[in-house]
Write a structure and sequence with these properties.
Blueprint lengths: L3 H12 L6 H15 L4 E8 L5 E11 L10 E4 L10 E2 L3 E5 L2 H35 L2
Antiparallel strand pairs: 1-2, 1-5, 2-3, 3-4
Length: 137
Amino acid sequence: MLTKEEMQYIIDYEILVDCYDATEMSMGWYYYWQENLKFPFKVMALFINRDGSTEKNEVKITGLDSDEEKFFDMDFDPEEENSGYLYPIASSKLSNIKAPCQTMEVLKIWNFWGLIYKITTMVQESIFKAFSTANAY
């Protein structure tokens, strides 16, 4: 089990090292996932049916749908068994993941980074709002 410090180290020195913009960050994540995820693995996924209803089913994930330029979308390709579903599956729609340890660690690092990214964005927005309000007078 990775610690927060170990996950942050991997993010800073393996995934996002020398990244200066969103495209480079996307490419860093894409290549990290390509090298470290082990396919296939099973998940429970939330699907949107053609009629707009949703349902949860277990599927086998067979690969990444995203490319390095749009990896923040982070979609997976499921095995094509359920032709009534709209594909691909967004990572945020996955649960109950049954995968090798290495794949689970990669997903944990992604989720950790997502949490840090959201917190950082919220703090930046709060600072900007406070600064804007203070300078409005």
